[in-house]
Amino acid sequence: MPATPDNPAFGSVEDVAERFAAHGYIADRRLATTVFLQTRLDKPLLLEGPAGVGKTELAKALAAATGRRLLRLQCYEGQDESRALYEWDYGKQLLYTQMLRDKIGDLTADTPDLASAVLRIEEQDSVFFSDRFLAPRPLLDAVRGEQPAVLLIDEVDRADEALEAVLLECLAEYQVSVPEIGTYTAKVPPYVVLTSNNTRDLSAALKRRCLHLFLDYPDAERELEIVRSKDTGLPEAAARHLVDVVRGLRELPLRKSPSISETVDWARTLAVLGVDELAPAVLADTANVVLKYERDLHRALEVLPRLADPNRTLPEPGHHHGHPHHSGHQHADHHHDHGDHGDHGDVDGRAVRAAMDLQGRHDENYYGAPGAGPTHRTAPGAGQGARSFAAIARRRTD
Q1: Contact assessment for residue 55 and residue 156, using Cβ atoms and an 8 Å cutoff
Q2: Is 195 helix (H, G, I), strand (E, B) or coil?
Q3: Does the global pTM surpass 0.70?
Q4: For the chain: N or C, fewer Cβ within 10 A?
């Protein structure tokens, strides 16, 4: 049922959390509050944060929880407005013109000259420029459609700034202008969710039109709750241990940290293998489920024994390869595939990671920002990990 002031889609913040949970999305109170306000204020919601923290899944859960159809606009570099708004079906127009050729002749038969014939045809513009020739794309479909919708504009930061400008009218007024026909205004405003991985700064005009929420990795208990909700089949103790291992990996200077969905995939992988207890060997054999770059995998393999068993003493870096290290020998010369972890000295792993992540993130307060590293990060235990493994990263870089 469409949301109105007298009949809101959600009755309360708690109702949001409960209905999201029923569809497999675990939302904390801050997120549930933001979604509740979005549905009451009819404002778009902009979600920013690292990849893999559930931004896209939130839009899917919102559609499922409210019974609305989901329309998705996947943004990419070089995307033009026709791919987002609408296109004309020129082939259909031409076919209609050929079919109506005789009628056009009859229509202009009594005109005294060419100018008069043109004027007569202009009076019939609505025949050739109408809804029947308009192929709607997600933005127009969300505005013009008869059924309520959730419009997901995914990875808007990857689109060019020109497309951002096109979005402003839609987001502010829930309308789309088609020059040949007129302006379409939504009868039932869609719920709009925009996501951004911060590969570039979004314009102030776009942000001004939206409610804003920064999503980061959840704390350990909430991530464990998410794993439980997915029915992975992994025993409780092993699932809790796995969450700790993943959070330890996120503290390393990796090019791509494991996402929440990859944690779930790893849990399912271990369950399929019949794992009841996490041993370093089985973690090493399956680490490629969450680590998608060779350099990241090498770095993780060095610390997985410690993450699997915190009481285990790791060998000194470089002494598990079976070759001597003489005076003047450069370790990096023989291990260049492991990355540049020997070139940074006693540097915090997160700062090293930020310096290597050159995907264009500009805001210094965001994860992955270039430079000396984030100026602020949530304290361990509050969404960033129950314990820090920065000391491990420093030992490996000595």
Answers
A1: no
A2: strand
A3: no
A4: N
